[in-house]
Amino acid sequence: MSSTEQGTSSAAPAEPTTAPESAAAPEVPESFYYVHGKDKVVHKVSAGALQHSALIHGMISNLGYTEEQAKANPFPFENIDGDILQMVVDWCNQHKGKPTPPEDTNLPKQKEKLFDLVLAVNYLEIKELLTYCCKQVAMMVKGKSPEEIREIWMIPTDAEDEAAEKEAKKRAGKEAAGETAAAAGDAK
Amino acid sequence: MPIALLKFPYDLLQDVFQQCNPYELYCLSKCSKRTQKSITLGGTRNNWKISVSSLKSILVHCGKDSYVFRHTTHPYQYFKTRREFESVPSSYMPIDIPVGGFIDVFLYFLDTFRINSVEWLGNTEENMDALLQIGKITVQRNIEIGYLFIYDLEDETDVMGFMALTNQMNITNGIRCWQTFPSNFQHKFTRYPKWIHLKNSFWFNAEQLLNCPCIGIELGDSSFSNRDLNVFLQKWKKAGEFPNLRSLKIESKNINDQIPILGMIPPIENVEHPRVSVSFNGGNRMFNPVRITKDDGTVAWLKVELGKKPRFQFIV
């Protein structure tokens, strides 16, 4: 079950329409926090679900926000695309308070998202999900030849690497020359 | 849909590499110099070990699994993992190991995958030169070797040269040597693994036996006499002597029924209460041995047989 408020585009979130359900009624009311990605869509997530992320868990531990403060100050993750953050939030909700099974089937299989997902999960420090994602990345080259791996993982050949290095050196040289000329001009 | 792996931050690359097995990482290392370097910097999931027994293949041990890289003369087979036999799940990866280029390939594995442990080394007629070089590399790099297997070669000269090197090598678990040596051969171990098994051990003298710290010792075709074995047992009986020794098996034509060993004339076996069976780690089983006791109370079992191949067996 998703706790996401799709379409909310302001930094201050509106009242969420749904909230995560728990099997047993907790004795202490569960606290919620709010996160948004590049698209500013705010997701309401329970502290329990967010515990998967060492980064967010650390932030929460230090803040001691009230519910109101948390609502007014969603955690901004401007470097993470909205749809990727959605995937991560969904995963955290699905695995709230549970250990991750060795073969997690709750993850999206779209390979086009995998690169960004790995970066986001790495940034958010969600260890179990990161291991799973890295396994998915590794699986992409199972049984492949170096030639095929080069294509799948977009690995430049030695010649391409050398050409890129030369180009970078050339550019750096030009920039340095430009800076010297500018400095000389300023001196005049 | 491709993903740009090398754009991952370094720590993430490491996480991905750790999910790859040796076949996958070997293929990746062959993609470019940059990927090879990334793998070297990234490290591998388990501490990999390597084994060598011929010039045609290299084994990489990763945890409980072994991965075989085997030379093929057919380039179209390179990197395409194949089964040994249809009915057997074990596989191997055909690769190019050029003639005279085995050491380069060996070093490629050591360097690329930062391997600093050898599971076992074994020789064949054709790879003695390479084995000598590998031995030197392990000494230079202080690489630990689990087991060393030296098979019996027609031309023993190379093996004799290699034996000298074994004292510099860090062999931890065992040495098994089947080589038959000329009668003037001499070798003195200055460092020992946990066990030694020398099939033709006439050169392994009483002094070496009395100072051997191994857990298991097996000496075929030795030159030990009843007197030597008596001296050994007298020393063993003293508290604190041979603290590691659990199993000793010696074959020697010089064992006879002329001189007593611990006051007993061979053959030595328990005839009063037969049916006792003793073994060490399930092997070297002996039936109806005699019980002997060390000064500190440690119990051991002894049996000496005569016949075509007189044999002394001792298990602690």
TrEMBL record, chain A:
Probable essential component of SCF (SKP1-CUL1-F-box protein) E3 ubiquitin-protein ligase complexes, which mediate the ubiquitination and subsequent proteasomal degradation of target proteins. Regulates cell proliferation during embryonic and larval development. Residues 1-25, 160-188 are annotated as: Disordered. Keywords: Ubl conjugation pathway. Residues 8-25, 178-188 have a biased composition (Low complexity). Residues 38-96 form the SKP1 component POZ domain. Pathway: Protein modification; protein ubiquitination. GO terms for biological process: protein ubiquitination; ubiquitin-dependent protein catabolic process. This is Skp1-related protein. InterPro entries: SKP1, SKP1-like, SKP1-like_dim_sf, SKP1/BTB/POZ_sf, Skp1_comp_dimer, Skp1_comp_POZ. It comes from Caenorhabditis nigoni. Residues 165-177 have a biased composition (Basic and acidic residues). Belongs to the SKP1 family. Pfam families: Skp1, Skp1_POZ. Residues 127-170 form the SKP1 component dimerisation domain. SUPFAM superfamilies: POZ domain, Skp1 dimerisation domain-like.
TrEMBL record, chain B:
It comes from the Eukaryota. Residues 2-51 form the F-box domain. It holds the Pfam family F-box. PANTHER family: F-BOX DOMAIN-CONTAINING PROTEIN, F-BOX-CONTAINING HYPOTHETICAL PROTEIN C.ELEGANS. This is F-box domain-containing protein.
